[in-house]
């Protein structure tokens, strides 16, 4: 490949794309490369690769050998890999318990994971009721001030996290979030009524890792009237499912 950023590589490559290409150039067979080799692998000029690589070094995503000046992947890549592995592990371990919860209740069940002050849907198993919750497909990211899962997570976080979650909301809505979180702290589960979808009720219980830190929540959603009528029983089922996931992950 040429050393210049020619048309064959696309003249509109932005910094993020270039950074990604440089990171993906490293393999088991090529764990460490000098500037010339790296530039050849990605088809960019040495000047461009040097500039982007130095930025990646500053972020800890690349490292540079003190003697040879060759580049290799940095330790922060391992941190990112741990995050991904954790997500995959919890999805795998939670799936059986989530399916059992769906069979017990007939409602749609969710595994929500805490991601950057929001709750991301990692798994959804649809219920079998004719009228069921079809909101929040996998990949959806919901602010912590919205929905039962967010309230459940906030209930095991500190006051600063709650304050941050409601900042920017109007006073009435912020007060409603605080009431839901207070309820969750008292009862061990959170309830939401029409937060994400009108006419849908939800119940959620927080998941904590071995250190006690929240990692997400198990939640259940269905027709509001149906959820409200069986709130106590459904909350017990969701709590049991959260306990089963915790046990499966080896968290105490």
What structural category arises from helix and sheet content?
Answer: alpha+beta
Write the CATH architecture name of the largest domain.
2-Layer Sandwich
**Main pleated sheet:** 6 strands, antiparallel
What is the CATH first-level class name of the largest domain?
Alpha Beta
CATH superfamily of the largest domain: GAF domain
* Count of all domains: 2
Structural shape: elongated
Q: Order of strands side by side in the largest beta sheet?
A: 6-5-4-9-8-7
User: How many β-strand stretches?
Assistant: 9
Uncertain spans, ≥5 residues at pLDDT below 50? 6-12
Q: What key phrases describe this protein's structure?
A:
single chain, 252 residues, alpha+beta, Arc Repressor Mutant, subunit A, Beta-Lactamase, 2 domains, 6-stranded antiparallel sheet, 3-stranded antiparallel sheet, 9 helices, 9 strands, 48% helix, elongated
Can you give a write-up of this model?
- The protein is α+β, with helices and mostly antiparallel strands and 252 residues long.
- It folds into 2 domains: 7-73, Winged helix-like DNA-binding domain superfamily/Winged helix DNA-binding domain (Arc Repressor Mutant, subunit A, Orthogonal Bundle), CATH 1.10.10.10; 83-248, Beta-Lactamase.
- The protein contains 9 helices and 9 strands.
- The strands form 2 sheets. The chain has a 6-stranded antiparallel sheet, with helices on both faces.
- A hairpin with a 6-residue loop joins strand 7 and strand 8 (200-208).
- Helix 1 (15-24) packs across helix 3 (46-58) and helix 2 packs across helix 3.
- It is elongated.
- The N and C termini lie far apart (54 Å).
- Residues 6-12 have low confidence and may be disordered.
- InterPro entries: GAF-like_dom_sf (IPR029016), HTH_MetabolicPath_Reg (IPR050707), Tscrpt_reg_IclR_C (IPR014757), Tscrpt_reg_IclR_N (IPR005471), WH-like_DNA-bd_sf (IPR036388), WH_DNA-bd_sf (IPR036390).
- Residues 76-251 form the IclR-ED domain.
- It comes from Microbacterium lacus.
């Amino acid at each position: 490949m040429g050393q210049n950023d020619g048309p064959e590589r696309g003249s509109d490559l932005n910094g993020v794309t270039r950074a990604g290409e440089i990171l993906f150039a490293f393999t088991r067979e090529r764990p460490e490369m000098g500037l010339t080799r790296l530039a050849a692998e990605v088809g960019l000029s040495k000047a461009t690769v040097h500039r982007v690589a130095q930025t990646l070094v500053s972020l800890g995503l690349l490292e540079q050998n003190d003697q040879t000046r060759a580049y290799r992947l940095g330790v922060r890549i391992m941190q990112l890999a741990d995050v991904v592995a954790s997500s995959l592990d919890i999805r795998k371990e939670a799936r059986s318990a989530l399916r059992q919860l769906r069979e017990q209740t007939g409602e749609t069940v969710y595994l929500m994971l805490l991601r950057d002050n929001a709750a991301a849907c990692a798994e959804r198993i649809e219920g079998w009721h004719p009228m069921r919750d079809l909101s929040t497909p996998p990949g959806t990211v919901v602010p912590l001030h919205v929905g039962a899962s967010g309230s459940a997570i906030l209930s095991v976080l500190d006051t600063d996290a709650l304050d941050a979650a409601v900042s920017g909301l109007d006073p009435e809505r912020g007060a409603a979030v605080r009431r839901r979180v207070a309820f969750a702290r008292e009862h061990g589960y959170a309830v939401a009524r029409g937060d994400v979808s009108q006419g849908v009720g939800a119940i959620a219980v927080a998941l904590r890792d071995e250190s006690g830190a929240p990692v997400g929540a198990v939640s259940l959603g269905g027709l509001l009237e149906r959820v409200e009528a069986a709130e106590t029983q459904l909350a017990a089922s969701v709590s049991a499912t959260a306990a089963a996931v915790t046990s499966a992950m080896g968290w105490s």
